[in-house]
Amino acid sequence: MLNESTSDAEIQAILDARYSMMDSLGVYQHHDAVTGTSKQNVADDYSFRLSRSMAESNSVLEGYVAEFANFYGAIKADSWAMCNVNNSTYVDCPVTESDSEIAVTTYNPTTVDQDVQTIKVPPRESYDVQVYDYLDEAWSTVESTLLCYDFLENNDAQTSYKDCNLHVGAQSRAHHMTYMKLTAKGSAEDAPEATDSDTITSGTTSLKYTGQ
Questions:
Q1: Residues 63, 20: one domain?
Q2: What are the boundaries of the region Disordered (predicted)?
Q3: Whole domain around residue 64: which residue ranges?
Q4: How many domains would you assign to the chain?
Q5: Is the CB of residue 82 less than 8 Å from the CB of residue 107?
Q6: Do 67 and 98 share a structural domain?
Q7: Which residues of the chain have pLDDT under 50?
Q8: Are 127 and 155 in contact (CB under 8 A)?
Q9: CA 159 from centroid of its chain's CA atoms
Q10: pLDDT tens-digit profile of 119-166?
Q11: What pTM did the predictor assign?
């Protein structure tokens, strides 16, 4: 948080991240960016500029997430890693299957309170979830639902792995962070191996998918 102990370097890092994001958003106001009518190389440049600005902002935000967590006594951690909400599977997020306990902080950037939060997690039988209460300065257990499915990684090779969404019944207030502890229970079975499922057979015909 900003106070009299904030160094000039920290303030400059915040301003640099802000200016970078404002520049990228300014470029996005171009009519080709708004309508999606740009050529592919221009669209790629739009995406690159925005992802670069997000990375700069995230590096600053991660430090303040750790500072707030330590300040409130919720979680003692020196560093955090960012996982975008639109990541396809948990493999894209900074968690591993060997982690039995995961500390998670979610941020609600909207002006509306959110009653359910969805988190990408490695496959397990279930998770126990605790949420930190700022007022009581204590952890409380909340309800959660784990939904897993087989994610098709390579269509040609028919390789897949199990991906999971953890839906947590914890309110996230507008413009607030929520601190959670996830404790894995047991281990889920591996995704089933690929079988010869590219052939559909009826009583009179047989249709085989060749990947073409």
A1: yes
A2: 185-212
A3: 8-72
A4: 2
A5: no
A6: no
A7: 189-195, 211-212
A8: no
A9: 23
A10: 888 888 899 999 988 778 888 999 999 998 887 777 777 777 788 889
A11: 0.66
> Cα–Cα distance between 56 and 60 in angstroms, integer?
7
Yes or no: say if 124 and 184 are a contact pair by the CB < 8 Å rule. yes
SS (H, E, C) the chain: CCCCCCCHHHHHHHHHHHHHHHHHHHHCCCHHHHHCCCCHHHHHHHHHHHHHHHHHHHHHHHHHHHHHHHHHCCCCCCCCCCCCCCCCCHHHCCCCCCCCEEEEEEECCCCCCECCEEEEECCCCEEEEEEEECCCCEEEEECEEEEEEEEEEECCCCEEEEEEEEEECCCECCCCEEEEEEEEECCCCCCCCCCCCCEEECCCCEEECCCC
Would you state the structure tokens that stand for residue 66, as one six-digit string?
Answer: 């750790």
Q: Is residue 40 part of a domain?
A: yes
Residue with tokens 């897993």: 148
d(CA 40, CA 46): 10
